[in-house]
Design a protein that fits this description.
With 34 residues, the chain is an all-alpha fold. Helices cover 26% and strands 0% of the residues.
């Protein structure tokens, strides 16, 4: 699925960010690219 293909400012790995995004806990600036 998501293997860190997204870049974020912060220290959280992309996979964890992706999981949070799926739960709509954090905004995803690149949601339109998927």
């Amino acid at each position: 699925m998501m293997k860190g293909e997204f870049t974020f400012t912060g220290n959280v790995p992309g996979t964890v960010q992706g999981a949070l995004i799926l739960q709509k806990l954090v905004p995803h600036p690149y949601i339109g690219l998927n």
